[in-house]
Amino acid sequence: MSKRILVVDDERGVRAALGQLLEYEGYDVRTAENAVDAIAEYNRWRPHLVFMDVKMAGIDGLEALQKIREHDAAATIVMISGHGTIQTAVEATQRGAYDFLEKPLDTDRILVTLRNALQHLDLQEENSRLRETIESRHEIVGKSYAIRGLIEKIEKVAPTPARVLITGENGTGKELVARALHRLSPRAKGPFIEVNCAAIPSELIESELFGHLKGSFTGAIADRAGKFEQATGGTLFLDEIGDMSLAAQAKVLRVLEDGVVTRIGGGKTIAVDVRVIAATNKKVEEEILNGKFREDLYYRLNVVPVTVPPLRDRREDIPQLVAHFTNLLTQREGMAPRQVLPEAVERLSEYDWPGNVRELRNSIERLLILSAGPRVGAADIDRLVGRRSGEGASIGSLLACRTFEEFKDAAERAFLLAKLREMDWNVSETARTLDMPRSNLYKKIERYSLARENG
User: Fold this and answer.
1) Residue 442 neighbours by CB under 8 Å, 6+ apart
2) What is the domain count for the chain?
């Protein structure tokens, strides 16, 4: 589809000539003879680019530029003038103009400006798509009471400069919380720098955080800024901070207190402006009692505590998470699309998920790769994901049932599945053992979609 361009000028000859040139180049062109019509046309048509004269009767081009950008900050507008001055060009730029052209208009200059402006627009659109993709990968998915409470707390804390300590089991999504805090903060346009303290050897963590000078130790072949410096103006996320050495903890404490860092091998202090968010899967109070974590650092970091709930405490979010990961993996990772049947989602909701959301995502990926056919059913779950809760439903999932009837169905299903397995899926022998007519057992097998696992 061709790009839309609006030409605004009170001279008919300029509108005609510029419009003809742009149409010849393959663009969809509309014109307006004054600023009032231009603003109305912009709101109706939403052009990709506007060429607008500065001097017009009534509302001039600079005022129109400002009004358009008040409603659409992304508007790309090139101002043109027959009485161009440096002051006018500066004022146009300050009000958000992309470029400024002088009359008489030069065809080559117009086309160069046009090409550059549209390339700039394409780059903005690509960046926007990339941001949407990244944000969808780091989206907090769920509508449960626990997740609604978590999101509400994030929205309250994010705009403040307060430090946050995020706690929770492995795989619950502590990094997602940290990214959400950054994204909703005044520092959102600054860098988000992540350091996994558990993945960096203790002898290298200080260099990683504070940087070093060339020759300060073996392998230091050049000066290097640390993560604190890199995160200036943004957020530094210290993941798994419970695994950080006591020596490094002492230096982090100093940075939090003084707002300066000193590179290894150097004596000069460097000011840093960083919001620190930390996370750990450990019980920090116990680590303090065991002498493995500094109490003073804990109180510096734990200004606002945020706990991320485990997946087993928000099972009602599992269907939404399954749909989210299925969409993410098929549409954006290029995997073969498959329909996850309701019976499969129900089976997934029965598991305890010790690896939490990360384990669920990995399981969905495995199911999409290895399931036979276009649909993922309960048998695929049992075969490829495995039983996480004994012989069927766990006590936790049974207690999560909303009604007594739902509880009875879940308990009966788990009981029958266990007995069928015990009898190696011999329906006649199972019915005899349960003192149940075989026809009744077949009906219940069909009702609960019970199926023998393959392998």
Assistant:
1) 427
2) 3
Q: What is the CATH number of the domain that holds 299?
A: 3.40.50.300
| DSSP annotation of 291 | T
Residue 266 falls inside a structural domain:
yes
Range of the domain at 207: 145-309
Kindly give, in sequence order, each residue whose CB lies less than 8 Å from that of residue 128, ignoring residues fewer than 6 positions away.
none
Indicate the residue type of 271: A
Q: 155-177 as b/e, with b when 16 or more CB fall inside 10 Å? A: eebbeeeebbbbbbbebbbbbbb
User: Do residues 155 and 299 both lie within one domain?
Assistant: yes
* CATH code of the domain in which 100 resides: 3.40.50.2300
Domain boundary among 102, 133, 164: 133
User: Tell me, what's the pLDDT at 450?
Assistant: 81
In a domain, 452, yes or no: no
What's the rounded Cα separation, in Å, for the pair 163 and 152? 17
Token pair of 298 as six digits: 């804990």
- The residue with tokens 């005899």 is 432
Q: Which of 310, 298, 347, 342 is nearest to 323 (CA)?
A: 342
Q: What is the CA radius of gyration of the chain?
A: 31
Measured CA to CA, the distance from residue 42 to residue 339 in angstroms comes to 43
For residue 138, is it within any domain? no
How far is the C-alpha of 17 from the C-alpha of 6, rounded, in Å?
13
Task: Give the closest residue to 6 by CA, choosing from 44, 37, 38.
Answer: 38
Residue 140 lies in a domain: no
The pTM of the full predicted model, rounded to 2 decimals, is 0.60
Please indicate, yes or no, whether residues 375 and 258 belong to a single structural domain of this protein.
no
DSSP category for residue 106: P
Q: What are the per-10-residue average pLDDT scores of the chain (455 residues)?
A: 88 91 92 93 92 89 91 89 79 88 88 89 70 59 91 95 94 93 94 92 89 86 92 95 92 93 90 95 92 95 95 92 90 82 91 88 90 87 67 54 78 84 82 88 85 59
Query: Please, which residues bridge with residue 30 across strands?
Result: 6
What's the confidence (pLDDT) of residue 34? 93
CATH code: domain of residue 429: 1.10.8.60
